[in-house]
Amino acid sequence: MELQKLLLVDDDSAFNFLNRIILNANGINCEIEECLDGKAALDITTTQAKCPDVILLDINMPVMDGFEFLDEFERHNKCRNHTNVFILTSSNQDEDRKKAFSYNCVKGYFDKPFNESHIREILSVLAPL
Q1: Residue 54 belongs to a domain with what CATH number?
Q2: Is the pLDDT score of 60 beyond 50?
Q3: Percent of the chain having pLDDT more than 90?
Q4: Does the pTM of the predicted model rise above 0.90?
Q5: Please, which contacts does 28-35 make with residues 24 or more away whose CB atoms are closer than 8 Å?
Q6: Among 18, 59, 110, 120, which is most exposed with the fewest C-beta within 10 angstroms?
């Protein structure tokens, strides 16, 4: 599977900016969108015709946090069967990691900062079997 669309969801716009640079520097030249909270991400995945292949999702955000987003996303979002979610967070709580993997769409859990090994893992999940 070729990565065509990616959604960065983090309340820190500097992280979104740096993550975009890291993705581009590692040959990821797909469409990349950014939003600052889970509500904005939910709006994007609900209203746009094309679902993202990957969402990089922070957990701790205002308005709607990552887990609130995942609850809504898995409940009735049209993208839930297409989109692979990877948590990208500074949370080092085992409870957060366990909770994240209780969602079917979550395929990975990464500690910040984002790096090349995270990209390789994402691409290995997307690779055809």
Answers
A1: 3.40.50.2300
A2: yes
A3: 90
A4: yes
A5: 28/3, 28/119, 30/3, 30/4, 30/5, 30/6, 31/4, 31/5, 31/6, 32/5, 32/6, 32/7, 32/8, 33/5, 33/6, 33/7, 33/8, 34/7, 34/8, 34/9, 34/10, 35/7, 35/8, 35/9
A6: 120
